[in-house]
């Protein structure tokens, strides 16, 4: 037990260091009231540790130990650091997760199955694409319209049925998203948030390792330590069957199990995209399956 706990703490501490260093190197000293440095000997891009500490009103040694993962900090100190580094809500939550201040529930590593309640909801959505995503952004269930819009998920081996993996490895996804790079970066940022919740998840580690070897873009974006939560947004798509689509996506969480989320895509009422989405739905084959027993 102590060995496992120590390994997990070390993993979190290392990630805290990478994350905080990445964020402070993005800020220029003059943005926060320090004089612009013209000293060629300044080897640290962005803010120095001492500058972050001064603005957060803590000692430089204390901040250094936090960044090195050798000292835990109360929420008030984490909030101060988040303000100095101009972290958004998702990044602040991520920092708290890594520091063990936001997630105390035990980890669950049993294979996930789509909740029956979400399955029933998904079946009623006959005109719009819908997916159930689980931990690590695994695709747990989908409807026929989602299969017609993205890929036939039933044709993807179950162990590889992960949305991030599909975005990076399935050729159709690279041409479907008109701004594939920004969409893929968002997926990586969302996966980073998953890593904060369970840094010792061996399946997530294997996924990150595999994609890092397969794709240089994934490797670079993962190293940037950007984080994001799944919420909502708009995507521009170019579908081979119906043409260009502008779709809004929304995330609906199931209160009984926050690790499962229903993701839906809709079009503006009366728009060309809505008409084309209806055309796609009308031609969607139920034979594509939905990934679970009826």
From TrEMBL:
It comes from Petropleomorpha daqingensis. It holds the Pfam family HTH_31. Residues 46-95 form the HTH cro/C1-type domain. GO terms for molecular function: DNA binding. Gene3D superfamilies: 3.30.450.180, lambda repressor-like DNA-binding domains. InterPro entries: Cro/C1-type_HTH (IPR001387), Lambda_DNA-bd_dom_sf (IPR010982), MLTR_LBD (IPR041413). This is Transcriptional regulator with XRE-family HTH domain. Residues 1-47 are annotated as: Disordered. SUPFAM superfamilies: lambda repressor-like DNA-binding domains.
């Amino acid at each position: 037990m102590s060995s496992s706990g120590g390994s997990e703490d070390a993993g979190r501490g290392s990630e805290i260091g990478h994350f905080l260093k990445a964020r402070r190197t993005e800020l220029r000293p003059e943005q926060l009231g320090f004089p612009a440095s013209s000293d060629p000997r300044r080897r640290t891009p962005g803010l120095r540790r001492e500058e972050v500490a001064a603005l957060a009103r803590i000692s430089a040694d204390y901040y250094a130990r936090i960044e090195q993962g050798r000292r835990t900090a109360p929420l008030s100190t984490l909030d101060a650091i988040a303000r100095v580094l101009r972290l958004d809500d998702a990044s602040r939550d991520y920092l708290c997760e890594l520091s063990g201040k936001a997630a105390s529930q035990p980890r669950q590593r049993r294979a996930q199955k789509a909740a029956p309640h979400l399955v029933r909801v998904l079946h009623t959505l006959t005109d719009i694409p819908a997916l159930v995503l689980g931990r690590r952004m695994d695709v747990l269930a989908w409807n026929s319209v989602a299969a017609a819009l993205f890929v036939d998920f039933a044709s993807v081996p179950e162990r590889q049925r992960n949305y991030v993996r599909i975005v990076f490895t399935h050729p159709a996804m690279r041409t479907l998203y008109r701004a594939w790079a920004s969409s893929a970066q968002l997926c990586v940022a969302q996966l980073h948030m998953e890593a904060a919740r369970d840094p010792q998840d061996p399946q997530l580690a294997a996924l990150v390792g595999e994609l890092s070897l397969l794709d240089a873009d994934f490797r670079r974006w993962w190293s940037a330590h950007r984080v994001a939560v799944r919420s909502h947004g708009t995507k521009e798509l170019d579908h081979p069957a119906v043409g260009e689509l502008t779709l809004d996506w929304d995330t609906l969480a199931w209160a009984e199990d926050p690790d499962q989320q229903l993701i839906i895509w809709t079009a503006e009422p009366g728009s060309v995209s809505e008409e084309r989405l209806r055309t796609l739905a009308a031609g969607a084959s139920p034979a594509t399956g939905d990934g679970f027993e009826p």
